[in-house]
Automatic annotation (TrEMBL):
Top-level taxon: Bacteria
Similarity remark: Belongs to the AAA ATPase family. In the C-terminal section; belongs to the peptidase M41 family.
Name this polypeptide is given: AAA family ATPase
Organism whose genome encodes this protein: Salinithrix halophila
Cofactor annotation: Zn(2+)
Full-protein positions shown: 52 to 325 of 501
Length: 274
């Protein structure tokens, strides 16, 4: 109990160039992270530290990857949780977990001789959604604790903490979270365009036995609207089709079958939740 949700990777080994596309988002994020890297300078100028960065965009677009790359870029330890871990917790337990999360982040940084820690909160909307009535009291306390912890972040602390949160429901967030000094940097992480899909497909086929005939450009054209996660899944499915066929290489037809499969899968998922 308790420790399960705090998976610690120390400093993740994911750099920004492992993320395909997202050029603008990466630039914006790096710009914000430079404040963390140059925190002494920031302090000299009396600039307020960046405490929270909000990544918003559709599922599977690489928000988690971006958060990990942020930790890699700033040489920070990485501590992660998700809003969904706070569902159905007793009143007070969520707040306690938030406290522990910040303690863990600081302790982990010290243990690893790092100056900074990034706390990643996926699905922040679960705990930070607009408050409606008394039925969400446990989330209220959790959210209040998060705000208190963030308000307590200062540039003169031994370990600089930065909270990166992700959501695909930015419109749902409580305005208290978005105030200056909290999540006041917003970076949108969108679905990849064709060029980005080519890059992502290349990344995920690099270590696979692709047939000469395989046309990544064409595959990118046929995968309009796919997220990075779907593209990754598509390359994996194509490999499975090839293996089932007893083919030593992955051919275009396997990719086509996999496109259908990923598209159908999405459809069944949607139908199931309707
Ligand atoms: P969710 O909102 O569903 O949590 P997410 O936006 O956090 O999703 P990730 O978990 O970062 O998405 O991505 C899932 C997987 O999809 C990654 O591990 C990676 O394999 C692949 N992926 C997603 N986006 C990209 C990208 N831009 N470049 C390369 N791979 C990607």
């Amino acid at each position: 109990r308790g420790k399960r949700m705090q998976r610690k990777d120390s400093v993740p080994n994911i750099s920004f160039d492992k993320i395909g596309g997202q050029q603008r988002s990466k630039e914006e994020l790096k710009e914000a992270l430079d404040f963390l890297i140059h925190r002494n300078k920031i302090r000299e100028y009396g600039i307020r530290p960046i405490k929270g960065i909000l990544l918003s965009g559709p599922p599977g677009t690489g928000k988690t990857l971006m958060a990990k790359a942020a930790a890699h870029y700033t040489d920070s330890v990485f501590v992660t949780t998700s809003g969904s871990e706070f569902v159905e917790m007793y009143v007070g337990v969520g707040a306690q977990r938030i406290r522990e999360l910040f303690q863990e982040a600081r302790a982990d940084a010290k243990k690893n001789h790092k100056n900074s820690a990034i706390i990643f909160i996926d699905e922040i909307d679960v705990i930070g959604g607009q408050r409606e009535g008394a039925q969400h009291r446990e989330y209220d306390q959790t959210l209040n604790q998060l705000l208190t912890e963030m308000d307590g972040i200062a540039t003169d602390q031994e370990v600089q903490v930065l909270v990166v949160a992700a959501t695909n429901r930015k419109d749902m967030l409580d305005s208290a979270l978005l105030r200056p000094g909290r999540f006041d940097r917003h970076i949108s992480v969108d679905l990849p365009d064709k060029k980005a899909r080519v890059m992502i497909l290349r990344m995920h086929t690099e270590n696979k036995p692709m047939a000469e005939e395989v046309d990544i450009e064409q595959t990118a054209i046929e995968t309009f609207g796919f997220s990075g996660a779907q593209l990754e899944s598509l390359t994996n499915e194509a490999a499975i089709y090839a293996m089932r066929d007893g083919s030593v290489v992955i051919r275009q037809e396997h990719l086509s079958q996999a496109i259908d499969k990923v598209m159908m899968g999405e459809k069944t998922d949607r139908e199931a939740t309707q």
